[in-house]
Amino acid sequence: MKITLVFLIATLIPFAGWGQSKISGTVTDQSGEVIIGANIYLEGTYDGCSSSIDGSFEFDTSEKGNHLLIASFIGFKDVQYDIVLSDSAVSLNIIMTESINRLEAVVISAGSFTAGEETNREVLKPLDIATTAGATADIAGALNTLPGTQRVGETGRLFVRGGESDETRTFIDGMLVSNAYSPAAPTTPGRNRFSPFMFSGTSFSTGGYSAEYGQALSSVLVLKSKNEALLNLTDVAIMTVGGTVSHVHKADDWSVAGKLGYTNLAPYFQLAQQRIQWNKAPETFETDVIFRKKYDKGLFKFYTNFNREVFNIFRPQITQADILDQIDLNNQYLHIQGSNEFKVNDKLKITSGLSHTRQNEVLDFNEDAINEHHQTSHGKVVLDHYINEKFNLRSGAEIIHTDHRYQYQTTESGQLNYGQSIAVGFSELDVYFSNKTVLRAGLRYTTDRLSNLSYIVPRLSLAQQVGENGQFSLAYGEFNQAVRPEYLRINQILDHEKVRHHIVSYQWIKNGRTFRLEAYDKRYSNLIKFGVENLNDPSSYTNEGEGYASGLDLFFRDNKSLKGLDYWISYSFLNSERDYLDYPSSAVPVFASAHNFSLVTKYFMQDIQSQLGLSYSYSSPRPYNDPNTTYFNSGRTRSFNDLSLNISHLLNPQVIIHGSVTNVLGFDNVFGYEYATRPDDQGFYQRRAVRQPAPRFFFVGIFITFSKNKTINKLPEL
């Protein structure tokens, strides 16, 4: 019986495969690399297998007739084949195409530091702007700790990669903001006019930026306001320099927020001695209003900022300290803008906006008077077209109109006016070759009716992922900018200034750590040049200036190695020369320092509900021109050093006490020298040093939040 059963099984085995088909082949990507673990199966059946280590697969099926064979693998598009099954074998070479995931794809990072809700590769958090020790919640102050910036302490503004401060432009929700800094007394720093607390995202580009932005030779600062308010609340701040009251009202689909602020430095100056003789300390009144409305397919935002600042100082003359020059300033500023995002469908979004900035400044210098009125209007429309997963087209148009009036009453009286309209069209295409390779190519066309010129410039960026966490980026672009009002009001046919950027960078991000290394080269042309003999002669102003700036930037950030500790280190090397303005020859400009270093640390102490911040900044000596020597700009200041400290303590769930001290060690930083316009009897030009208004700046504030949620406070922002 056993022999019969064995014989029967042995007889049937050769016929067990009758009626089955063999399906086999290989699975590779478009470059020919094998794909391991891809699923290959017949739709509607349990028949299938996975590709092996060499990309091959093989399985048998008893199915007959027409069937759909599917190959699938994470990160790739499914591949489908219509096959006919019979007794014969089926062999396939399956080639799979990578699926582009915009959220996971490499991002272009050359020249750009991005922070906010719209990126998964943030280098800075939005609130880092408010929590950096020494910055005292000033946007420019915080960004000056990043590589690519130079510390120019007598202005407080952003100087980027060998560029002057006016080469950096500020945008809020894509709209141009003119005169973004508050006025300040001579050789004293000003501040950015806008509070960092109103923004959810920040993009600070040190070069090679998008074709959407122009009229900036070196850098753009793009600020994105918050899309919505979270809840109703009222904030009160009592500070050593003044106070603010703000309120947010939230409804279902709209919200409105307003702030009133008053600053008066007179009481503070009574406590902290100043090097400046103030007749009237700076006094500022400010108000902000922002309205947001969501509707079916879009979001509308309206924002306005108004402030008025006055001060009056006495300045000793360089040659005769007992003779005082009086400077009285009254500055009124208004910025108003509206922006709208409308999603037409899943593939098309239209963003539009209007902004208007007006500044009126009255300056009295002894018996002389100057009234400068400047206003800029900006209109813009941008279309974002998602063509498919590989292509995204961003195109738009804008108009920038400026009216400038300069009235003066000195030994002579007069008025200088001009009106300028600049029209722009731009288009930019993002090409996603894969999740690891992205190309951005753009063109920007500009026409200026005042100067009677037009031009078109290219922008090009490329990002390539290297390994799992690193990427290389390249950027090239040509950038133009209309000349400053003080020159344009004299000669209105001057060409736009020009610069060409070349950037290569490497960035690595993993587990809360970021490393970045970037090299750049900038070539300036068409810079303004003039003689000093007759500054009111239009023919003395030309576009014959030129210059260059090249260097290396390094950045490292770590918020994971030690619990509660977050820190970053930045270093910049700059090599720059210019032959422009009244320079007799090419020289290192007075604002350029070869080496800049910053260390920023923040430590949160959970047990005592406090956050401690410490920042150290160093800049190598800057050049200055000593008319008592033969060589131009051959003098060098001492190096700049600053160690600053801040601390925030949660007194109770709704009350925060915040204190800060800049330049704790009292370094006597010298930013340059002012020289007399004429030599003394011995033929020597006397001078005085340009120093900080005081060795240190102290700040103490109490911040109180009133809301139904008793745990809401401003600790995350301080």
Account of the 3D structure:
A hairpin with a 2-residue loop joins strand 9 (168-172) and strand 10. This protein has two domains: 2-96, Immunoglobulin-like (Sandwich); 112-717, Maltoporin, Chain A, CATH 2.40.170.20. It has a 22-stranded antiparallel barrel. A five-stranded mixed beta sheet has the order 8-11-12-9-10, with no helix packed on it. 4% of the residues lie in helices and 57% in strands. By secondary structure, it is mainly β.
Quick recap:
This protein has about 725 residues and is mainly beta. Helices cover about 5% and strands about 55% of the residues. The strands form six sheets. The chain has a 22-stranded antiparallel beta barrel.
Query: Sheet with the most strands?
Result: 22 strands, antiparallel, barrel
Q: What's the CATH topology name of the largest domain?
A: Maltoporin, Chain A
- Could you say how many structural domains there are in total? 2
Query: So what's the overall shape?
Result: globular
- Helical stretch tally: 5
Q: Beta-sheet strand percentage?
A: over 45%
Mean pLDDT: 88
Helix content: under 10%
The number of E-state strands comes to 38
Briefly note the structural class of the backbone: mainly beta
In CATH, what is the homologous superfamily of the largest domain? TonB-dependent receptor, beta-barrel domain
CATH architecture of the largest domain, by name, is Beta Barrel
Level-1 CATH class name of the largest domain: Mainly Beta
